[in-house]
Design brief:
It is a single chain. The longest helix is centred in the C-terminal third of the chain and has 22 residues, at 374-395. The chain has a domain at 4-261 and 441-489: Amidase signature (AS) domain (Amidase signature (AS) enzymes, Alpha-Beta Complex). It has an 11-stranded mixed sheet, sandwiched between helices. It is globular, with a radius of gyration of 21 Å. Helix 2 runs antiparallel to helix 3 (48-64), helix 5 (160-167) packs parallel to helix 6 and helix 9 packs across helix 11. The protein has helices at residues 9-17, 23-36, 48-64, 105-112, 160-167, 184-190, 224-234, 278-293, 309-324, 342-353, 356-368, 374-395, 421-426, 432-437, 466-480, and strands at residues 43-46, 74-78, 116-121, 173-178, 193-196, 216-221, 264-268, 297-301, 401-405, 441-448, 454-460. The chain is α/β, with parallel strands linked by helices. The chain contains 15 helices and 11 strands. Glutamine binds at residues 127-130, 158, 178-182, 210, 317, 428.
């Protein structure tokens, strides 16, 4: 029989429809893969029993010819999405044991469409990080390794558990959230595809907030088409999220395989930043050639305020986080460490509940929002943010999409960049501008580094033009023909 864990979502849906295998077999195969790969630490909470029950229900629907759009597809759910009655931690001690009494809109929509959650995927604490190293439940291990080097590598972050699970063939797809790169960078590090849709495309209701004006849910898959199928289910207007946009959700999968003839692809010169790995620059040039060969027109564009994006992000994101995380006070959620009086209880709870990175961001955020500095930092950052957005709008007068690298380096070893927060922050240099501007961005694997690690390229699109991204991604995917598997899976393919 085919190796079920190596199928794409599209192939699995076809196989289920044709009764080549059952949803129970599909889910069991993935649970077995998850159990065999527990060393990767992809899940904070496993929900295998519930998954088996849901698989049975999916099989009944297939038998009756009433299958749902994603019926029986096993997925990993980032542990930032509230799931009713199932522990949701944001990878923080402060929320350990918290079982939300409600379901996030995105996870609810996926359930409605028949997707089956295998577990709550590990992440950086409150989604703050680029390596998964800040999780209170231990870091995630990337299933890829450098050639001839057995050291464990990071999967990227913050949605590292989701990305590693999809790369390791534990889940067929996964949810992530992206505030400054948390879908795109782990997708690149793990050799899979991920899309951060336009801000407002997927509801943030029930997604534990980090920086509300930047947070955006999106899917991971092993192909652009699988991401398209997942996004169709995740996206849509939600009255419970005031920033959700009321626009129809197109059939994204219909864009797959469409010609890119005449598509104008912009190459921003400011993304040739110093310190970027040379192999990544070479791959970027190759990607440009691939799209050109497929019929696209290449245009040089300029995004002059790119150089301020990172600094601006590290004012705005901590500012919003410091206010969002004020709610964790030991009174309503999770951890409570008693003190002599109320203030003491707040302080004890927050000091013991939050990890170092979260505390650092709360401090920075509180500082930039304080009376004396609000104008100098926060308001100034908001003005610069507008200029970054304007750069994209101007560039889109000349092109339809942009092509850039996703991250300046391939996956690094666990612990390598943790000591120096600034080096870690630099990892998001290519993903943050699109986040600041609310533009959709997608990363897909295009090649391998000399030492055998996946490298990704990023496509950035116009607001709500995810269809164009899928079209360009599928052309690039076809040309790149990335079929390599993580070393830990070699020889296990179908
Ligand atoms: N790495 C970035 C940060 O730590 C982005 C994280 C994210 O997108 N959630 O803020």
């Amino acid at each position: 029989m085919t190796n079920l864990t190596h199928l794409t979502i599209r192939a699995a849906l076809d196989g289920l429809e044709k009764k080549d295998f059952t949803a129970t077999e599909l889910v069991d195969a993935h649970i077995a893969a998850a159990e065999a790969a527990r060393g990767l630490n992809c899940f904070i909470t496993e929900t295998f029993d519930a998954a088996r029950e849901q698989a049975k229900a999916a099989d009944e629907r297939y038998a009756k010819g009433e299958a749902l759009p994603l019926d029986g597809i096993p997925v990993a759910m980032k542990d930032l999405f509230c799931t009713e009655g199932v522990q949701t931690t944001a990878a923080s001690k402060i929320l350990e044991g918290f079982k939300p009494p409600y379901e996030s809109t995105v996870s609810g929509q996926m359930k409605r469409d028949g997707a089956i959650t295998l577990g709550k995927a590990n992440l950086d604490e409150f989604a703050m990080g680029s390596s998964n190293g800040t999780s209170a439940f231990g870091g995630v291990v990337n299933p890829w390794k450098r050639k001839g080097d057995n050291r464990d590598l990071v999967p990227g972050g913050s949605s590292g558990g989701s990305a590693a699970a999809v790369a390791a063939r534990i889940a067929m797809g996964a949810t992530g959230t992206d505030t400054g790169g948390s879908i795109r960078q782990p997708a690149a590090f793990c050799g899979i595809t991920g899309i951060k849709p336009t801000y407002g495309r997927c509801s943030r209701f029930g997604v534990i907030a980090f920086a509300s004006s930047l947070d955006q849910p999106g899917p991971f898959g092993r192909t652009a088409e699988d991401c398209a199928l997942l996004l169709k289910s995740m996206a849509g207007y939600d009255a419970k999220d005031s920033t959700s946009v009321n626009a129809p959700v197109p059939d994204y999968a219909a864009s797959i395989g469409q010609s890119v003839k005449g598509l104008k692809v912009g190459v921003p010169k400011e993304y040739r930043v110093e310190g970027t790995n040379e192999e990544i620059i070479a791959l970027w040039d190759k990607g440009v050639e691939m799209l050109k060969d497929a019929g696209a027109e290449i245009v040089d564009v300029s995004l002059p305020h790119t150089k301020y994006a990172l600094q601006t992000y590290y004012v705005i994101a901590p500012a919003e986080c410091s206010s969002n995380l004020a709610r964790y006070d030991g009174v309503r959620f999770g951890l409570r460490v008693e003190g002599d009086n109320l203030i003491d209880t707040y302080e004890n709870t927050r000091a013991q509940g939050f990890g170092a990175e979260v505390r650092r961001r709360i401090l920075i955020g509180t500082y930039v929002l304080s009376a004396g500095y609000y104008d100098a930092y926060y308001n100034q950052a908001r003005r610069v943010r507008k200029l970054i957005w304007q750069d994209f709008i101007d560039a889109y007068k000349q092109c339809d999409v942009l092509l850039t690298p996703t991250a300046p380096t391939p996956a690094f070893a666990i612990g390598e960049n943790l000591q120096d927060p600034v080096t870690m922050y630099l990892n998001d240099i290519f993903t943050i501008p699109a986040s600041m501007a609310g533009m959709p961005g997608m990363s897909l694997p295009v090649g391998l580094s000399a030492d055998g690690l996946p490298l990704g390229l990023q496509l950035i699109g116009q607001p709500f033009a995810e269809e164009t991204l899928f079209k360009a991604a599928s052309a690039l995917e076809k040309a790149a023909n990335f079929t390599d598997l993580p070393q830990t899976l070699m020889g296990k393919a179908a």
